[in-house]
Design brief:
By secondary structure, this protein is an alpha/beta fold. The protein has a domain of about 140 residues: 3-Layer(aba) Sandwich (Undecaprenyl pyrophosphate synthetase), CATH 3.40.1180. Strands 3-4-2-1-5-6 form a six-stranded parallel beta sheet, sandwiched between helices. Helix 1 packs parallel to helix 8.
Length: about 260
């Protein structure tokens, strides 16, 4: 193996040793951005960038399991992504099916519990079938929860929660005066998951792009200029090290 490979491994190990494993974020959420820009910078089709992004997913899933992260939520396809060219959307859906068919066994072997947030009923039938197979196969696993956001939008999620709560009020099973933050949280896709401690966005963009708007109210944000296909353990470790340096007060004051 090359000198550069071992140099990279040494950097990763050095960073890993700086992480306090007792204070690793419970829930990390990542906006996987920059696949298209990665491909464009290499004069490659966008779909090649998306395929390269899958390799980054595998590495970050493994790193999360090793660090003891409990939940990893990956923003894979938003409600707005349907606006992209039809051939790109089709390629993304085929890539999703390919990933599920190839990787579910390894996820299961590594005790990963795969879940999803978003309205997957709008995805192609083949995608829905493969997703449910993966859910079933990994449902009893007790390790990392790999939570994929597909056809997900934070605003749509909140609207759906409001509608469901309104229905409960209308039929008399919920009183208006009993509605609080916990009520709203219980009607979101993430109702059984902790809010994200850390939200990571590579690619240089400095926004949430309709991702976990309610849940991310007090999340720590970490941005990087690295495009997602190049986002590796080194970048991930740096994000967690930076997270551990922050003073999380949740609006209060610490003595």
């Amino acid at each position: 193996m090359s000198f550069l490979f071992w140099k990279r491994k040494d950097r990763q190990q050095s960073l890993y040793e700086k992480i306090d494993l007792k204070r690793v974020p419970t829930h990390v959420a990542i906006i996987m951005d920059g696949n298209g820009r990665w491909a464009k910078s290499r004069n490659l089709p966008r779909v090649i960038g998306h395929r390269a992004g899958v390799e980054a997913i595998k590495e970050i899933v493994k790193a999360s399991s090793e660090l003891g992260v409990k939940v990893l939520t990956l923003y894979a396809f938003s409600t707005e992504n349907w606006k992209r060219p039809a051939d790109e959307v089709s390629s993304l859906m085929k890539l999703l099916v390919e990933f599920l068919r190839k990787e579910t066994k390894e996820l299961d072997d590594n005790n990963v519990n795969m879940r999803c947030i978003g309205d997957i009923s709008k995805l192609p039938v083949t995608c829905q079938q493969e997703l449910h197979k993966s859910f079933d196969i990994t449902s009893n696993n007790t390790g990392l929860i790999l939570n994929i956001a597909l056809n997900y939008g934070g605003r749509a999620e909140i609207v759906n929660a409001v509608k469901a709560i309104s229905k409960r009020v209308k039929d008399g099973t919920l009183k208006i005066e009993n509605i609080d933050e916990n009520t709203i949280s219980s009607f979101l896709y993430t109702s059984k998951l902790p809010d994200p401690d850390l939200i990571i966005r590579p690619s240089g963009e400095l926004r949430l792009s309709n991702f976990l708007l309610w849940q991310g109210a007090y999340s720590e944000l970490w941005f990087s200029n690295i495009n997602w296909p190049d986002f590796d353990r080194e970048n991930y470790y740096r994000a967690i090290i930076d997270y551990q340096k922050r003073d999380r007060r949740f609006g209060g004051i610490k003595d």
